[in-house]
Amino acid sequence: MKAIILAAGRGSRMKDKTEALPKCLTRLWGKTLLDWQLNAIKNAGINDIAVVTGYRANEIAARYPNLNHFHSDVWDKTQMVATLMRAEPWLTTDDCIVSYADIVYTSKAIELLRASTADIAITYHTKFLELWSDRFDNPLDDIETFKLDGNSNLIEIGRRARSLDEIEGQYMGLLKFTPEGWSAIARVLASNDLPKGIERIDMTGLLSFMLSRGETIKAIAYDEIFLEVDNPEDLALYESWTPDQYGALVR
C-alpha cells in the first residue's frame, strides 16, 4: 500500500498566506498541513508516500527531502485529476491512498480505506454539519450532494444541494484506488466522453462521471476529526480550538 498527497496548487483563497509557500505548508496548531497528513498516514502503517508538487515545489522538497516526489509543471492550468495523473507509475502497480493536501484527519480514516477491498473507495465525514455550521452562516452555501444506496455505495456526488436531505455525508478528499480501479478511471480519462477535458475536470466531477458509466464507488463512514482549510477564516476558526492528544477537538 502506498499513499499520494496532492499538493500542486497554490491555494489562492489563502491570499498572502501562500505568497511564498504552497498551501500544504500552512501551519495549524504548530504543524504544517502536510505534517498532519503524513502523521495520519504513517500511523496507519503506510510509509511509501509521495507528494505531487507544483507551486513552490522547491519549498516542499527542501522541508521533506525523504518523500517521493512527482511534479506538475502545469499546476496553474489544471485541476486535481490532472495532478493525480502525474503519479500514474504508482497507481498502475500498487493499491494507493490519495489525499488532498489541505485537509486534517486522523489515522482512522486511512485505516478504514486500507481495510476496504473495493477497487475505488472514498471516506465521508458523518459529522459534517457541525463543522459546516461553524464555517458558514448557511451550510448549504458551500456543500454538495452526497447520496448512498443501501450497500454504502455512492450514487450521487458533486451537485448543488438544495436541502440537507440531499447530503448524507461530506466528501473529504480521501480516496483509495487499486490498480484495477485506476485502470477503469484511465479508460474513462482516455475516452472523449468527459464533460470537461482532462485538464479541467475536478475529482468530484470525475467520480460523478464514473457513476454515470456504471462504476461502483464504495463510501466509508468516518466520524473523527476532519477539517478543510480553504481560506484564512477557516484557519483562524480552527486555531481558536484546541486539539487533544486523541485528535478530538475542544471548542
Q: Could you describe the 3D structure shown?
A:
The protein has helices at residues 33-43, 57-63, 80-85, 88-91, 107-115, 128-135, 179-190, 203-212, 232-239; strands spanning 2-7, 27-28, 31-32, 49-53, 68-71, 96-100, 103-105, 120-125, 144-148, 154-160, 170-177, 218-222, 226-228, 242-243, 249-250. With 251 residues, it is an alpha/beta fold. The protein has one domain: Spore Coat Polysaccharide Biosynthesis Protein SpsA, Chain A, CATH 3.90.550. The longest helix is centred in the C-terminal third of the chain and has 12 residues, at 179-190.
Please give a quick description of this structure.
The chain has one domain: Spore Coat Polysaccharide Biosynthesis Protein SpsA, Chain A (Alpha-Beta Complex), CATH 3.90.550. The chain has nine helices and 15 strands.
Question: What do we call the CATH topology?
Answer: Spore Coat Polysaccharide Biosynthesis Protein SpsA, Chain A
Number of folding domains?
1
Quick check: average pLDDT?
93
Q: In terms of structural class, how would the helical and strand content be classed? A: alpha/beta
What is the share of helical residues? 25-40%
Shape label: globular
The helix/strand series, from N terminus to C terminus, equals EEEHEHEHHEEHEHEEEHHEEHEE
- Counted beta strands: 15
Largest pleated sheet: 7 strands, mixed
Strand order of the largest sheet: 5-4-1-6-11-8-12
Question: DSSP helix count?
Answer: 9
Uncertain segments: none
Strand content: 25-35%
Radius of gyration: 17 Å
What is the fourth-level CATH superfamily? Answer: Spore Coat Polysaccharide Biosynthesis Protein SpsA, Chain A
Q: What is the terminal separation in angstroms? A: 35 Å
What's the CATH class, please? Alpha Beta
Shape-level CATH architecture: Alpha-Beta Complex
